[in-house]
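Quick check before the chapter quiz. The format below is the same one you will see on the exam, so make sure you can read both the input and the output lines.
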Amino acid sequence: MMNEEKLQKIVDIFASYNVDIKTNDYQITSINGDNVLLDTKSYMPNQLIELIGKILSQQVIKKAWGFFD
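Here is the expected output.
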């Protein structure tokens, strides 16, 4: 299960790819400026990484179609 050390490591890894993730305790509150509310205690690390990847994919799709222009 997730702990603070694992969550911080995931945040740091995504930061190395210029992905800005904001947290509050065990919750992710923002990904690249988009508000989200993810209780990371509910995920295994690999599941959380995949979910963040899906959110990033949706951000790219929305931007490609001009929803954030």
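If your answer matched, good. The beta strands are 21-24, 27-31, 34-39.
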